[in-house]
Design a protein that fits this description.
alpha/beta, Rossmann fold, eight-stranded mixed beta sheet, 12 helices, 12 strands, binds adenosine-5'-diphosphate, binds magnesium ion
Length: about 325
């Protein structure tokens, strides 16, 4: 990929130790296993996969909000360069300002006892980024206007607002510290389709205008493929495919990606493509399947897949895949 990536994760693993032991051995949920990926500066980067595939854990790990078991995360925005896994206290404080999370549920995320102004101002005040109330107010008004919030609403409480408006408040709060990197985890999943589109357009134009790199996490490939310039696909804690969106549309190389694509309803009445059915549920990350983790549900499975882990490789320029048979399948 061109230039220095903003985020570069190398062999990243996150395991959660469980209290319970089986035959005297502690059990681990392998939520993320050996994930390597670069998020290019300025990209609108998508991460997609079924529920339970490890997306939230990955997003939190790169924000240093989940424990990193193994591997490295490098953050480089041109001003600072951090090794996120081993970052010290002072740098971590600065990193928290540069990287922000937009919450999943706009109803639960906003404190009902604070005014919209105070909700948006809180990160500035907690981090001590402004020197007077007037300056804070100025920053809040500026970002609220950018998020197309009515300035008269700043004095109200969040219960007065619809889901879409609440999500704008969450976005304003995430942007008020002028971050360089934003993670949105299922941020539009709870909204109606027309409001989803509205919020996505807002995020897209704001991140472009402000030069923010964006990691967009969703279980919905149709949304991700629609708005993101890169798409990465995760299955049971591992990446199976990553490519610029147009390349993925032209040719998906992994049977799991192909199955996700085939499940998107077509708007074309002449398109009678057959949905590839994913049988059963995603297996438990407590004891993932041997070899290729997808082999238990793959319609192209062969003997090798059960024994041998497929390597994560760049099959075509910027197009990565982990499947033994990616060259032959012609999905
Ligand atoms: P996704 O966001 O793709 O649905 P998650 O990252 O939330 O996936 O979860 C991945 C796996 O890790 C799931 O099996 C989930 O149950 C498990 N998990 C997530 N957080 C914890 C935790 N704090 N302790 C133990 N297991 C967890
Ligand atoms: Mg999640």
């Amino acid at each position: 990929m061109n230039g220095t990536p903003l985020i570069s994760a190398k062999n990243l693993s996150v395991h959660y130790g469980l209290g319970l032991k089986l035959f005297g051995e502690r059990q681990y949920v392998r939520a993320i296993e050996n994930v390597s990926l670069d998020i290019p500066q300025g990209s609108f980067f998508g991460l997609v996969g079924e529920s339970g595939s490890g997306k939230t854990t990955f997003g939190r790990a790169i924000l240093r909000a989940a424990p990193i078991t193994k591997g490295h995360i490098n953050y480089n925005d041109g001003e600072v360069d951090y090794d996120v896994a081993t970052i010290g206290k002072v740098d971590l404080k600065d990193y928290r300002k540069r990287s922000q999370l937009i919450f999943q549920d706009p109803y639960a995320a906003l404190s009902p006892r604070m005014t919209v102004r105070d909700i948006i101002a809180e990160p500035l005040e907690v981090m001590g980024l402004t020197s007077s109330r007037a300056e804070t107010d100025e920053r809040v008004r500026e970002i609220a206007a950018k998020c197309r919030l009515n300035l008269e609403h700043l004095r109200r409480f969040p219960h007065a607002f619809s889901g879409g408006q609440r999500q704008r408040i969450s976005i304003a709060r995430a942007l008020v510290c002028q971050p360089k990197f934003l993670v949105a985890d299922e941020s539009v999943a709870a909204l109606d389709v027309s409001i989803q589109a509205d919020i996505l357009n807002l995020l897209k134009s704001l991140t472009e205008e402000l030069g923010i790199t964006f990691l967009f996490i969703s279980h919905d490939l149709s949304v991700v493929a629609h708005v993101c310039d890169h798409v990465s696909v995760m299955y049971l804690g591992q990446l199976v495919e990553l490519a610029p969106t147009r390349k993925l549309f032209a040719q998906s190389l992994h049977p799991y990606t192909a199955a996700l694509f085939s499940a998107i309803p077509s708007l074309d009445p002449d398109d009678h493509h057959k949905a590839i059915k994913l049988e059963g549920e995603i297996p438990s990350p407590l004891s993932p399947p041997s070899g290729c983790r997808f082999h238990t549900r793959c319609s192209h499975v062969q003997a090798r897949c059960q024994k041998e882990k497929p390597e994560w490789r760049e099959l075509d320029n910027e197009h990565f895949v982990a499947c033994h048979f990616a060259e032959e399948l012609n999905l």
